[in-house]
Hints:
By secondary structure, chain A is α/β, with parallel strands linked by helices. Chain A has helices at about 1-10, 25-40, 55-65, 100-105, 120-125, 155-165, and strands at about 45-50, 75, 85-90, 115, 145. In chain A, strands 2-1-3-4-5 form a five-stranded parallel sheet, sandwiched between helices. In chain A, helix 2 (about 25-40) packs parallel to helix 6 (about 155-165) and helix 3 (about 55-65) crosses helix 6. Chain A starts with a helix and ends in an 11-residue tail after the last helix. In chain A, about 50% of the residues are buried. Chain B has three domains: about 5-110, 2-Layer Sandwich (Beta Polymerase, domain 2); about 155-195 and about 480-495 and about 505-515, no CATH class; about 200-480 and about 495-500, Cytochrome-c3 Hydrogenase, chain B (Orthogonal Bundle), CATH 1.10.645. Chain B contains 18 helices and 15 strands. In chain B, a hairpin with a 5-residue loop joins strand 14 and strand 15. In chain B, helix 9 (about 315-340) runs antiparallel to helix 15.
Amino acid sequence: MLKTLRTIAAVGIVSEPPPADDPALRVREALPAKIREVLGRALCIRYVDAGSCNGCELEVHALNNPLYNIEGLGIRFVASPRHADLLLVSGPVSRHMAVALRRTFDAIPDPKLVVALGDCGCTGGIFGESYASCGRVANVIPVDVIVPGCPPSPVQMLQGILTAVAAMPAGRMAHGP
Amino acid sequence: MPLRHWLARAEELPGSPAAARVVVDAADWHAAAQAVAATGGQLLSLWASGETATAGAASVRAALLHERGLLVLEHAPGGPDRRYPGLESIFPVATRLQRAAFDLSGMRADAPDQRPWLRHAAWPAHVHPLREPVVVTDPTAATADDYAFQGVEGDGVHEVPVGPVHAGIIEPGHFRFSVVGEKVLRLEARLGYVHKGIELRFQQLALAEGHRLAARVSGDSAVAYSWAYCQAVEGLARTAVPPRALWLRALCLELERVQNHLGDLGALGNDAGFAFGLAQFSRLKEELLRAMQSVFGQRYLLDAVVPGGMAADVGAAGAAALAGCLRRIASESVKLRNIYDEHAGVQDRFVGAGQVPPELARRLGLIGLAGRASGQDLDLRVDAPWPPYDALAPLKCGHRAGDVAARVAVRFDELQVSIRLAARVLEQLPAGAVHSALLAPPATAGEIGIGLIEGWRGPVMVALEPDARGGIARCHPHDPSWQNWPVLEHAILGNIVPDFPLINKSFNLSYSGHDL
């Protein structure tokens, strides 16, 4: 126990303060204020891998590490679509996942947002459309924001999430605590 | 006939230094497999090519790992229905491989289990995508199908269906638990949800560009797959790769191993209720990813390995920064291991959970990292080394307990070994070019190039057949997850459902690499 506490103290808080001259990091600074303004509470994300190579998924995991500290920004990944505001989808949508993805989308209460991740989520990527792949996410469910990259970096993902939140028509998601 | 007889008859294959092929008839197909099994070998992969204009006659191939390398059996069955003898009685892993081969290529094995495996509802049962085109009228119209799970009956038994969409940030798959109270009586997995037609997609690419798709068969093993693919292409093109490029590939492969082990060690702590572990290990992993970004220009090395060598060289400054980062990770991991080892709560969850004893592991063909935690000590970097591992001679890590704790221990051990290996590569990196132009492959019909690489999860294989125009006639990538998914179903028996995420994570198998 003592060693654990000592490590915690020694490592300290590693979440990065956003320097003013780095536009990529300024996204993180703007994010919590924006989200509070639009949502009035934490943003809840439901993530679905609809057929990716699992590269995007590794970067979604990285969002939770102490350096990006997404929970510290007021954003949380949730287990049930019923609790979610935003659906984050990676991959070309495999035809075997199309039904599950659509059902997950339907289970999220309105108003909802969808962010498609990665080159595959945006265009179908290297896998394209085939007997087994529906291609891009927008071919299966409506998409608000796309985040290209193979895989996109955690900062790019954050940028995409912010863009989606800012794109909501004013008042649509404004509800108090 | 003993194995040496088959090896004497076999012709060497281009690519991996360990691979050879022998063409057999139906009786020999079974006999040769038996000979490999008799020496303690195992089935690595099995795939088929349906009769097509480009690939010629229908044939089925089995890649068998024996103690000195890989023996590829090739069999072209006769008769009107082109059936071949199933190997499931010798190697249990053959069952799913044979079902998948039928779904994709229409070659049926004589075996009891004839249920579809990779095919759900995206295409009809009588169509086989690698043999004839699938006509898709409405690509998003596929509905859920009715798969025949093997049920368990009795007083108080109920089923818990989980997935394909899971609660956490993981890939999709379906697990059907039969439980009494909290205890698991049976688990049956259904995979294939992320089948996206990778093998057919390969056939639309040129030989020289297939490595990009190979790297995306399973993104967490991008270096292993792209190296395996390149090994096959370079073998077919008789192209020698400069030593510096080979050493840099080994560096990338070890970095991929370190990066995945760091991620898993954190996630395993978290699944045991110790969030501190996730915070610390994911911090170390991020540090490494950023160092890799500054040295290679990418965090996950998806496009680092290219046919003929490496996409880019590593400068002296980059090498020094990377070595420093690895040293910090090595020393911090030692302290964190100590904390894990002394944490009663964590050890209570790790020890004895999801046990696969060595005898069961041997019988089921458990392989790779999980195999080494259950007394199966195969590590291709040592047992069938390819350059530069013949010069590097890494240390093998292993354990015999076969539980979550053992799989954690092997990861901790391998982490240190890989960091030492990477440091040595950085120190002794040969000078010279990192890329040589690929010579055009001679267009020999029926030629196969084999790539065989020990990735962080286990042996990754790519079997590559060129066509006459510089394209790909057939490419079959194999992930060690094929071997280990069925073993997970045994590991969970007698455990409680809430321990499944922990046990599953301790194997950390690929869905994408399996579903193709």
